[in-house]
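[job 4417] fold queue: 2 targets
>>> target A
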Amino acid sequence: MSDHDHSYKLLFSHPRMVQDLLQGFVHEDWVRQADFSTLERVGGSYVSDDLREREDDVIWRLRLGPEWLYVYLLIEFQSRPDPFMALRILVYTGLLYQELVKGGHLTHNGKLPPVFPLVLYNGEPPWGAAQEVAELIEAVPGLMAYRPNMRYLLLDEVRLGADEVGPSENLAAALIRLENSRAPQDLQAVIGLLVRWLHAPGQQDLRRAFTVWIKRVLLPARVPGIELPEMSDLNEVNTMLAERVKQWTEEWKAEGLQAGIQQGLDEGRKQGRQEGRQEGRQQGRQEGLQEGRQEGEAALLLRLLTRKFGPIDEPTRARVLGADAEQLLVWGERVLSAATLAEVFEA
């Protein structure tokens, strides 16, 4: 299990996180009937009949409605797509049910309690995996009725709408906003909210869990190679960000532009090779490669200029398109430090 998954497991070992996750993101009737004051953590490590150990991420139970009917929440954390996640959920649920039978944890009717499987996904690629286990099984006429039917709910953090992760006092939403942040100011704003929301003495462990995740997972991913000071509380994280937000903003911007320039140059060279091969049939391979490369680099520079300074006027556009490769490279390097469009083209 990765540091990210370990830190998520630590965060969701707190009932407040589970409650905010369900109330904020699971829009189903049973959530409104649930008694969250009864939330109770359930062990998630089982040994199957063939003596192989399987371990879930986090399992909780809570009272639902007027009766002592428990809904078991099986929460699985994922940072990359798993095409057979539906099968994993089915196996985990079966092992959980075996333990409930052994322990006599049945409903008053002698039946198994319901299970709510939830997959919390924070990866960049779209999920795409089947959410119903029956979809993983070949459809054979006459055998369709024997396929297991079980699905899980997927919460895709990266693709949640802005209205779902707004500024309301919801810790799960704050976690997702931090995951999706792309600027130091965004981090500072959300961490400031967490400092206010988790100020009570009884919330010390949860503050500590957020601090560990921010320091060991979130910040190293945002500012790789930066040595971070010792921080044991969210207040210290907030203070550190306030001191470094301007510096990190410039570094992130420079790194982003440099990466964009490099990517664009690579694309320009690729485009130049492709156009060069076609042009070379008529006027010579070398001439086509050169022209194609310059066209790609000019297109990249125009894209970077537009992104940083807004729409580019026609005389400037014509100047870029008519420049040679060496001049385009000089202008491209100036984009990183120029405060105005004119500074890019200064003599």
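>>> target B
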Amino acid sequence: MLIAIINLVRKKRLDEKFAFLWVVSGIFLVVAPLAVPRIDKISHAVGIEYPPALLFLIGFLALFLIVLQYSVILTRLSKQSKQMAQRLALMEEKQSHP
């Protein structure tokens, strides 16, 4: 997955500003299996009895951040699109009534 993300960024199919959380997620997927003893300790320290549940929680939070990031971007683009449509309508109105 990490290699696919890097290739998408390299080929300009995924913008760098969107890729950050995906790269972090990919690194987590690579490192998580290597850190099973630490994950077990951390999960028991925070009161989670089933250590894989901690991984699901972290994955859920990561996806939540990604969706939040896209929601903010989508909101900004929607506002920009509305402003551009309004400006275009004003310009067309000025041209039709000299």
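[job 4417] complete. Note on B: The two ends are 58 Å apart (CA to CA).
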